[in-house]
Structures are given as structure tokens and as C-alpha cells.
Amino acid sequence: MSKDIQQAGEERRFLDYAPAPESRDIVRLRPSYGLFIDGDWVDGHGAPFTTIDPSTEAPLAEIAVADEADVALAVAAARRAYDKVWSRMPGAERGKYLFRIARLVQERARELAVAESLDNGKPIKESRDVDVPLVAAWFFYYAGWADKLDYAGLGASPRALGVAGQVIPWNFPLLMLAWKIAPALAAGNTVVLKPAETTPLTALLFADICRQAGLPAGVVNIVTGAGETGRALVRAEVDKVAFTGSTAVGREIAKAIAGTEKRATLELGGKAANIVFDDAPIDQAIEGVVNGIFFNQGHVCCAGSRLLVQESIHDELVDRLKQRLTTLRLGSPLDKNTDIGAINSAEQLERIRRLSELGEAEGAERWSAPCAIPEQGFWFAPTIFTNVSTSSTIAREEIFGPVLSVLTFRTPAEAVAKANNTPYGLSAGIWSDKGSKILAVADRLRAGVIWANTFNRFDPASPFGGYKESGYGREGGRHGLTAYLKAGAR
Asked: Which of the residues 22, 116, 267, 469 is marked catalytic?
């Protein structure tokens, strides 16, 4: 470790923050949760499991598991609600329910944020300041679309698809729920949603919000379980499948629905390049790099996990980046000072460790921020790899953790070639003080979302999605709405 970095670490210890824990008392978790079907809680017929706090490994609640029959029951409830109530309701009335849900999310924001951090392991300041406000924003945005479907670009009187089967991941449980449910309901569809098995709690709290909002029974149904529950939902009599998760599971889903009339939106993995040119605002770029890969412990499909730095500023940027990482605080997700929370599961931690060890074995130089790792729970220190080649496993595979691979380039053409040298195509970032350079490079990048002098910024009016093995279809904006509609009369 260089003298400057060591000094920065000593200053950090001198200026340590006092603990500022958020109270758990705002959340009153039940000892056990059933399935939310047709407006009621019912028992699942699979073997229940226990969801845990990944920062302590302490149990939080027992969760029911839906088998194929339970999933069929939920789909039947959604179909009845669609046929008898939701599809017949004027768009303005549907919008009122969405507005009501959005306001309830805001009213219960603190409760939802604490539950999200408990179940997921992410820092409370991220749940509180990013996830939950975006959830409310998504429902507000699509509430406004509910009575304006004629202007969605599909002609007059577009029609809903019917019943949507939705499977969401564990990295942004409540936000991904909003990305799926809000446009589906605004378009007039009903929903059966399966949250990830390691993070079901906020989806189950959302079921209570649906009841509180007076949403008609069967419009939203939530079934919990692991992979088999998800497969049963994909195979069920649904009209649309929406999935966010790994590319491997996305391929499975695409094969399962091939030859059927089911529509699909698949938002899959990524290996985003964050490109920093020598004329970039360096301080701003460093903050963007940190946000791009260490936000949410790197559990982000569009994370900037490949840093492409122009050769002339490589050494300076890496040194300053290391100094910045010594100031990040790893610790309890419920502490308001925490920057790096817990890894979501033992399985994911093992993957991060395995790929990091492989990176070292392949010749990359590893540096990890000096920080105390708690004895209980699942933790991984922010890590940077330098001397990484484009053929390195850590430069090609999605690690989905707080691990950054640094590569260099000399010219814009080389930067574009290296950025596009990946089977994925979800996102990218460009850092430069020249707008013409940003636009020229962005035009040649094969990525669905490109940020300029920022990273990981989301807005409900902006479509999100990728190319190649990052999936197909878009979520957010008008594009996310039309994914749940079919053309009406022309």
C-alpha cells in the first residue's frame, strides 16, 4: 500500500463516524407469510423456507412456497380479475389505484426501506434515498399513463395482453416489483409476481399495500418460492412473461415459451464499460466510478464493472480511486453511515470469491480496501484489479459484486472496441468534457443505456434494456408500457 493511501486510511479512522443505526421497530414482521392470492393470504403446498438477514444470518420470517397447483390458482385468480373487473375498468379509474399505491409507498417509505435493507443487505441510505423514492415515482408515472393509452403509439384503443407472469431478482426487490407491476396495471393487465427466494419480504409488504389501497382482489397476486415456482409461473396460462435476472435463466425462459403466443421482456446480465478519457473531470469521474460499481455492493446488472482508462491518466486515476475507497465504510446495513453493506447470500459471496481468486490466478493484480470484516454475515471488501487483459475471466464474466476490473486504451476507437468486446450490451458510461466526443463514442457503443458524465441514474420516463445476452425488450417510459399492450384499431 502506498504512503498516501495508508495516510488516507489513518485519517479515515481518526474521523470515524459514530454509529447511527436506523430502528428496526418501524417494521413489524410476522413470524410467517403465506401466498397472496385473490386478495387473501393462503397456505403454500411446498416446503416453507426461512429468509435471513445477510448481515447477521439471523432468521427474519418463515416464507411459504408455491407449487404448480398454487401458481395455477394464482393465475386463475388473475384471469378472473382481468375478465370481470380490471380490463373493464376505465383507465382513469385504474390510474386512481396506482396513484393511491404511490402515496402509500411514500407514507410507508421508512418501513419499506428498513425491510429492504434487512432482507437484502443493502445500506439503509440507498434503500431510503434511492430505491423507495424510485418505487413511488414509477407508480406515479404510470398512473398518469393509465387514461392515455391511445397516445402510447399503438393506435387508438390499444388492448391489454391479459395476465402477466413476472419474476424479479434479489438485488432491487421492491424497485424491480415497481418496474414490473406499475406498467402492467396501467395498461389494464393483471399480475402474478414471484419475488426472489432470498428477498421476498418487501413484495409481501407490498401485498398489504395493495389491500390498503383497496385494489380489487386478484389484480395483484404474489407467490413465493425458488426456481421451481418461477418455472411453474412461466409454464402457466399467462399471456406475458417479464423476467429480470441471469442470462442463463433468461435463455431457459426463452426456450420454454418458444412456439407459444406468450410475449416476453427479458432484462438480463451485463458487463458495462465505464470509459474515462484524459480530458474527463477527474474528481467527478472517480465518484462516478465508485457509484458505478460499489453502489449496492455491485449487485447491479448495469454496474460499471469494467473501467476503461486512457493510458495517460491511468496511474493517477487508480491511485486516487484507491484513496477514495479507503473512505468507504463497510458495516451494518441499518447504519446510516454505511456505504458498503452485506452480500445478499452465501451462494453469491462464494461466486465473488471464486471469480476474484481466478482473476489473481490469471495474472491480474488485486487490491482491496482496508476494512474490518464482521465475523457474522456475508461480506466482501471493495476490490480493484489492475493489469487486466480483455481475455481475463473477470473482464468477461458478470461477477455481480464489489469488484472492479481496470483496463487501458489509447484512442477512442480502441476504447469502443474494448467496450464492445463482450457478449453483453446493457449499459455503458462515458467521461469527457467534450460533448462531441461523448456523442461520437456513444453512437458506436453497443449498449442499451449510456450515461454521460454520470452513472446509475434512473428515471421512470426513460426506457431501460439491453442488446445481445443482456436480453430484449425495454422497461420504463412509453416503451415499458407498450410491452404490456397490443395494437388496437388503426
From this structure: 267
